[in-house]
Design brief:
The complex is a heterotrimer of chains A (328), B (409) and C (265). With 409 residues, chain B is α+β, with helices and mostly antiparallel strands. Chain B has twelve helices and ten strands. Chain B starts with 6 loop residues before the first helix and ends with a helix. Chain C has 265 residues and is an alpha/beta fold. The chains are: A alpha/beta (328), B alpha+beta (409), C alpha/beta (265). Chains in contact: A-C, B-C.
Chain lengths: 328, 409, 265
């Protein structure tokens, strides 16, 4: 086990863009690397991805492994997992953090089997246990009702996918440099029977949820799909976008992509206005990272009225129009 | 109380209750307001086997009888009497076919019927022939291997959505009522079109259309039974279908109570839950008792019907005969009086319960946000279709008069 | 077409309770059911069977009571059901569980060739989403996760849409392959009367670790790579400022004022 050294993070690139999760992982990974006295390394897979190395160095990476190949342009589980497990075999990392994005979840799972090691999913906190240097990854289970701390004692690397937005982005130090190690793509071995046909960009209007600074979310209390039109007005006025809890999505009032919570997206806006949302733990898991949460609910006993920073008891169909009026 | 006497009936109740809560309930207000047929719900009914409940396993059905059909219709109507009509009117349209069809005709139609791939509807009523079906004017005159159909039917439930229409026509107008026959006419047959869509008081999600036949050529293989016996099949159909309407009415009454009692329990006025006011509580008790009485009547009758219906179906399949003929062999008697009693009592009960429930709950129940006003609108149709309550009384008194006359009393 | 759905029996998500003192799940009285995400997987399997013909098999791994989810699968339209049950499996993490399931899949495949394996996106108790990709890894076959739509299921391959954060990717996977599906994929039906009756009578094939030829050194709490070392109830903040006002209008005005004051807007 002594051979296994350094903390790795997977710097996800898709469609030519570095995912912001890379900076979050660098932040989380920096803590681990410092606790261990090891290097923090980032892994870049894709086509024309070497250029991101400089940015990763500036955000704390000491070393960046790059596998740059046209075959990696689009994400295919087998190609990526085979490449990654070959890199693991070659360089023997101690800990390996991946983002719990759609790509990261799937990739980490397959890679763990190829690499013959354990994996913790969707952690919200990672620390090094002082006594044995093991990774302690804490994650919500049972729909967020229970937190569990998970270890992987006997195999390396200890792998973990980290929930997006669980960590802040690593600070940038301009001009910080590091070492690039290139890993050659093996045409014969890193193959997949699957074929990538095409990408269709989301047709959804409005800002991407992960980038929105203001989110106005609606729940069961909206009572009807048209309620979102009202929320949209408020969101537009505040320069944000709309989202939903699970109930409206299940009722088909709004697309699944807009669902916030454990089975939907995790968001971290500045301002989160929850309208007619009761505040079940599954939902709060997706929005509790917001700087400020406002709850508008008829029921003063709804859980969200205690979890929010500001609680407004009343009918959202009174409050929201009145807010618009007050804003104008 | 559940009146299931076997596993199949109990599971019918379980399945339809789940279907109603999970699938009908979220849609009912929207579809009622839009006055639109729900394709989504049609698909749900199809996927959960609602069209084949009363049909033999040979055709992909469940093998249940009139009771299973009625139980399903009750439980679905308990949540939404309108959406429930998709399987309900398909059964109504298909029962006359199923009773009178030859083995070959059954092969042709029953598989797609049981799977729900094709919807059926029943077309009897005409502008000039409502309660008096004998006055119908739609003609079907023989021309070689075809009947040429001309005329208009109106107030046809599930119109335009249904694929097959069991249409009462006159194949021999000179013989009057004795010229009435039943033809199965498929949507899309040239000359067959749809006229006005009705705007209704209740059951709004179910489309009610006028059917227009202009020189529609229908193959003679689509004739049910023999020419001139149409009214007999219609009467026999109504014997089996009226308990279904009665079951629907029981469902509406029960559904209204389901909405009312929790509201009365939680609504406080003068410092106490209003259900504790005896005048209100006693009213609810009366309504609940009447509803239960109606339910007991419906299933007492359907269980007795099934004792004949199921063996007749089995024999028809074994012998390659019609269900109608096998029923005659078993009993030959008629259910008209009891069917009419069930429909009369239950329809009146549904109307009374829904009406009283709206009053009990007060202002909120008058608002469309609350489901009760819909129950009141929907209840009304049960007093009207498949024979008004007055026609049911005619059936009952006519049967009674005959019975006592036969006894010489 | 032989489609295999993987399902799990989990606590019903709406009645999970945690003992605040011990931080443990209160299992007594907790009702179990099919993992809700697996309902979408099974529904898609049954829908594909209805369109293309074939067989839907269902596999689960779990204690004896997990037989209930297999019977439930029959009620929802499955044809054949298989249960992996053995003390050797107990306490397995996703690495070991996916290994055991992959051995079960191989055994089913030896009885009738499996074309497509469908898993739910994740379970509602452990929420990992690992099982689909990991089964495919053990079996050495292609997979796609977060599948939201089957565009076309052909004779030799399936074309699917995979959900990403920014859109949809369209992939073609040759059989045999594994897809893990999100709830958009299907609308689970209500169990039919026939299905409910068949469920009671269905034959459940039960296999032990030996029956599927699984290597026991890869199974169970002692052998799997990860381990839960601590569990506890999450902390929650309770410090809401109640925005007061005589009516909705006043409260709204006050709220806007507060948000402005604190520079949130």
């Amino acid at each position: 086990m002594k051979d296994w050294k350094n903390v790795w993070i997977f710097a996800e690139v898709s469609r030519g863009k570095l995912s912001p999760t890379a900076y979050e992982l660098l932040n989380a990974g920096r803590g681990l690397a410092d606790a261990l006295g090891e290097k923090l390394c980032a892994v870049l897979l894709g086509k024309d991805v070497k250029k991101f190395a400089a940015d990763l160095f500036e955000h704390g990476a000491d070393l960046v492994y790059v596998c740059d190949a046209p075959q990696l342009e689009n994400y295919l589980d087998d190609v990526y997992a085979k490449t990654l497990s070959a890199m693991i075999k070659a360089y023997k990392p101690n800990k390996f953090l991946l983002p719990a994005t759609n790509m990261g979840r799937s990739l980490s799972a397959k890679t763990a089997i190829f690499a013959g090691t354990g994996l913790t999913a969707d952690a919200t906190e990672v620390v090094i246990n002082k006594e044995d240097g093991q990774l302690h990854a804490t994650r919500p289970t049972f729909g967020g009702n229970l937190m569990a701390t998970i270890t992987c004692a006997h195999t390396r690397p200890e792998m973990c996918s980290l929930r997006p937005m669980a960590y802040a982005k690593a600070p940038r130090t301009e001009g910080r440099k590091g070492e690039v190690v290139e890993f050659a793509f093996n045409d014969k071995e890193f193959t997949s029977l699957a074929k990538f046909l095409k990408f269709i960009k989301s047709e959804g209007e409005g800002l991407d949820l992960s980038e929105a600074e203001v989110i106005v979310a609606g729940g069961r209390g909206l009572g009807k799909p048209e309620g979102f039109a009202l929320l949209e007005k408020l969101a537009k006025r505040l320069g944000g976008t709309v989202a939903a809890s699970r109930a409206p999505v299940d009722s088909g009032w709004i697309e699944y992509r807009r669902q916030i919570g454990l089975t939907g997206r995790t968001v971290k806006p500045k301002l989160y206005i929850a309208c007619g949302i009761s505040g079940q733990i599954q939902h709060m898991a997706g929005c509790s990272g917001a700087d400020v949460i406002v709850a508008i609910n008829k029921d003063p006993e709804a859980p969200i009225m205690k979890l929010a920073h500001y609680a407004v008891q009343g009918d959202l169909y009174d409050i929201v129009p009145a807010m618009l009026e007050a804003l104008n | 109380m559940d009146y299931a006497i076997n596993e199949m009936e109990q599971e019918t109740l379980n399945a339809t209750r789940e279907l109603a809560q999970k699938k009908l309930k979220p849609l009912r207000a929207e579809m009622d307001a839009k006055e639109q047929f729900s394709k989504e719900m049609y698909e749900e009914f199809r996927k959960s086997g609602m069209f084949g409940l009363w049909l033999p396993e040979k055709y992909g059905g469940l093998g249940g009888g009139i009771t299973c059909l009625a139980m399903a219709f009750e439980e679905l109507s308990r949540v939404c009497a309108g959406l429930a009509l998709t399987p309900g009117t398909t059964a109504l349209g298909a029962i006359p076919m199923f009773l009178a069809a030859t083995a070959e005709q059954r092969e042709r139609w029953c598989y797609d019927l049981a799977s729900g791939k094709k919807l059926w509807a029943f077309a009897l009523t005409e502008p000039e022939a409502g309660s008096d079906a004998t006055a119908l004017k739609t003609t079907a005159l023989k021309d070689g291997d075809y009947y040429v159909v001309n005329g208009t039917k109106h107030f046809i439930s599930t119109g335009k959505e249904a694929d097959f229409y069991t249409v009462a026509v006159n194949t021999n107008p000179s013989r009057g009522a004795r010229g009435i026959s039943l033809l199965v006419i498929e949507k899309g047959t040239p000359g067959f079109s749809f006229g006005k869509k009705e705007e209704k008081m209740g059951i709004r999600t179910n489309p009610t259309y006028e059917l227009i036949f202009e020189n529609v050529r229908v193959p003679k293989e689509n004739l049910l039974g023999s020419e001139g016996r149409g009214l007999l099949y219609v009467q026999e159909t109504l014997d089996y279908s009226r308990p279904g309407v009665a079951a629907q009415a029981v469902g509406i009454a029960q559904g209204a109570l389901d909405e009312t009692i929790p509201y009365l329990r939680t609504r406080k006025q003068f410092g106490q839950p209003i259900i504790t006011f005896q005048a209100l509580g006693h009213k609810v008790a009366e309504l609940a008792a009447k509803t239960e009485a109606g339910r007991a009547l419906v299933y007492s009758i359907t269980h007795r019907m099934d004792e004949e219906f199921l063996p007749a179906v089995k024999a028809a399949l074994e012998n390659g005969t019609t269900v109608h003929d096998e029923l005659k062999k078993i009993k030959g008697g008629r259910w008209t009086k009891y069917s009419a009693m069930a429909k009369l009592f239950c329809a009146n009960t549904a109307m009374e319960v829904a009406d009283e429930c709206v009053t009990l709950c007060g202002g909120i129940a008058y608002m469309r946000d609350f489901p009760l006003e819909k129950y009141m609108r929907d209840a009304k149709i049960t007093q009207i279709y498949e024979g008004t309550v007055h026609i049911q009384k005619n059936e009952i008194i006519s049967a009674l008069t005959k019975e006592y006359a036969a006894k010489g009393e | 077409m032989h489609i295999l759905a993987c399902v799990k029996q989990t606590p019903k998500s709406d009645n999970v309770k945690i003992d605040p003192a011990t931080g443990c799940l209160i299992r007594s009285g907790a009702e179990s059911a099919m993992n809700p995400f697996d309902e979408y997987a099974l529904e898609e399997a049954v829908t594909l069977k209805e369109q293309l013909g074939g067989t839907v098999s269902v596999i689960t791994m779990g204690p004896p009571a997990a037989e209930n989810v297999l019977r439930d699968s029959i009620a929802r339209g499955a044809d054949k059901v298989y249960q992996l049950g053995d003390m050797a499996f107990a306490g397995s993490d996703t690495w070991s569980t996916s290994y055991a399931l992959s051995k079960g899949v191989e055994k089913i495949n030896s009885l009738e060739k499996v074309d497509l394996i469908i898993c739910g996106k994740q379970t509602n108790d452990s929420d990992t989403g690992h099982i689909g990709p990991q089964i495919s890894a053990w079996l050495g076959i292609p997979n796609a996760a977060f599948v939201r739509r089957v565009v076309q299921a052909g004779d030799k391959s399936i074309v699917v849409e995979r959900l990403t954060e920014d859109g949809t990717e369209v992939l073609e996977l040759p059989y045999p392959c594994v897809i893990s599906v999100v709830k958009e994929i299907s609308n689970p039906r209500v169990r039919s009367v026939k299905g409910r009756m068949a469920a009671k009578r269905a034959e459940v094939t039960k296999w032990t670790a030996d029956d599927i030829g699984a290597d026991k050194t890869k199974l169970g709490v002692k052998n799997c790579p990860t381990r839960v070392v601590k569990s506890f109830a999450p902390k929650r903040d309770a410090n809401a400022v109640v925005v007061e006002g005589a009516n909705g209008k006043e409260k709204a005005a006050k709220l806007v004022e507060l948000l402005k004051e604190n520079k949130y807007i």
